[in-house]
Amino acid sequence: MKKGVLLVNLGSPESPEPKDVKKYLGEFLMDERVIDVPLWARTLLVKGIILNTRPKISAKAYKKIWWENGSPLIVLSEQLQEKVQENVDFPVALAMRYGSMTIKKGLQELVDKGVDEVFLIPLYPQFAMATTETILVLAEEIRKADFPNLKITDQKPFYNNNDYITVLANSIKEDLKDKNYDHLLFSYHGIPERHIRKSDITKSHCKIDGSCCETPSKAHEFCYSHQCKEVTRLVAEKLNLEPETFSTSFQSRLGFDPWLQPYTDRTIERLGKKGVKNMAIVTPAFVSDCLETLEEIAMEGAELFHEVGGQDFTTVPCLNTNQGWVELLAKWINQWAKTPVKA
Question: What count of other Cβ atoms lies within 10 Å of the Cβ of residue 231?
Answer without folding.
Answer: 25
